[in-house]
Specification:
Sulfite Oxidase, Chain A, domain 2; binds ligand MTE; alpha+beta; 5 helices; five-stranded mixed sheet; binds molybdenum atom
């Protein structure tokens, strides 16, 4: 497991593999002495509040309180993720398209880049304000692929071998949805899903699939990893089941 984002903080733990809830609770309890958070979204609001107050932190887990890691917490549902670089990374675009394609990192870097500065909001309550992301608009890749008329949705898969996400075609074509190569004005590091992750700015951060390796155009939305475990497919910040205590807009 890679914890380099939060080294020194002693606060965070990579998300444990998708094991039954009982096991997560057990792991969370084990970890109580040393850390503030065990990240397991369906459980986390309860558990995080518990751990947070035990650690003397604000139980909402707002990121301003974290001393290190720039406010981010490392999440992975896979216990280990292979590293990919410019030589080994590939992004496949396929499904209901006329021109399936495989992009290298150099290919993606060669396309027009869009930079956006928005708040990152995890459904469990932590937030990182004003975070720059930069990359290729997803709509550009979809247009290049030639989406067929029967298409309704897009499915995202990851080279961690486990995670998945989805968007409707209309959501996927928004201007604020990126295939991101950079975050905080640096190339995306491995912990944050590098070299390439999805960035869905208007939705909770679980929509922003890390280690993106596949974009498949489909005829209907197929719920992603966390959505099969109870989270909203339409994860608009402030308007889904991760609703904030405070308004965010
Ligand atoms: N492949 C993959 N992508 C993922 C996740 C994951 O576990 N695996 N977790 C999601 C969740 S719940 C959050 S909050 C963010 C965390 O991103 P970070 O690790 O860069 O902070 O990634 C999202 N994308
Ligand atoms: Mo999250």
């Amino acid at each position: 497991m890679n914890q380099d984002v939060h080294q020194g903080a002693g606060e965070d733990r990579p998300e444990e593999r998708g094991t039954p809830v009982g096991r997560r609770v057990f792991l969370g309890t084990l970890a109580l002495g040393a850390i503030g958070v065990v990240a397991a979204p369906p459980l986390q609001r309860g558990l995080e509040g518990f751990l947070g107050s035990a650690a003397g932190k604000d139980p909402t887990g707002l990121t301003g309180l974290l001393p290190n890691g720039g406010g981010f917490r490392y999440y992975s549902v896979a216990s280990s993720v292979p590293r990919k670089n410019a030589g080994t990374y590939r992004l496949r675009v396929d499904g209901l398209v006329d021109h399936p394609a495989t992009y290298t990192l150099a290919d993606l870097r060669g396309l027009p880049q869009t930079r956006m500065v928005r708040d990152v909001q995890c459904v469990t309550g932590w937030r990182v304000p004003d975070t720059p992301f930069e990359g290729v608009r997803l709509s550009r890749l979809l247009d290049a692929a030639g989406v067929r008329p029967t298409a309704r949705a897009v499915r995202f898969t990851c080279f961690d071998g486990t995670y998945s996400e989805s968007l409707t075609l209309a959501q996927a074509r928004r201007d604020d949805v990126l295939v991101a190569l950079r975050m905080r004005d640096e190339d995306l590091g491995h912990s944050h899903g590098g070299p390439v992750r999805l960035y869905v700015a208007p939705m909770y951060f679980y929509k922003s699939a890390k280690w993106l390796s596949g974009i498949t155009v489909t005829d209907e939305v197929r719920p992603g990893y966390w959505e099969e475990r109870g989270y909203d497919v339409d994860a608009w910040v402030g308007r889904s089941n991760g609703r904030d205590d405070e308004p965010t807009s």
